Amino acid sequence: MPIAITPDFDGQTVISTFEMTPGTCSDVLEMLTDAYDSVIQHQPGFLGGAIHVNDAQTRISTYSRWEKRGDFQAMLRTPEMRERNRAISALCSRFEPVMYEVAAVF
């Protein structure tokens, strides 16, 4: 189901960026895809998400929507996601999840 981006969205939007070498991009992508497929999409409050890879395969961005901020934070605190995020971070030079609000839609 497509995620409608609207300025009146009352939940939490999270955009995470991962920086890595082209040699580890496919590994990170595989780990993120498995995390979304096996864990994240099944967490309470998860509304949808997407994974994006840049052409140079040096950056991956994930976009997810949650019913509320606490739902995203609770997912991050689960033992399984803590372990998965440590493994993903080990392959990245930088990993940054940031919570956003929609300011405008065009």
Strand element count: 4
Largest sheet geometry: 4 strands, antiparallel
Q: Given the C-alpha coordinates, what overall shape results?
A: globular
Strand content: 25-35%
Protein described:
With 106 residues, the protein is α+β, with helices and mostly antiparallel strands. The protein is 36% helix and 29% strand. The chain is built from 3 helices and 4 strands; from the N terminus they run E-H-E-E-H-H-E. The chain has helices spanning 22-38, 69-77, 79-90; strands at 12-19, 46-53, 59-66, 94-100. The protein has a 4-stranded antiparallel sheet. A hairpin with a 5-residue loop joins strand 2 and strand 3 (59-66). The radius of gyration is 14 Å and the shape is globular. The mean pLDDT is 94.
Give the structure's gist in a few sentences.
This protein is α+β, with helices and mostly antiparallel strands and 106 residues long. The protein has helices spanning 22-38, 69-77, 79-90, and strands at residues 12-19, 46-53, 59-66, 94-100.
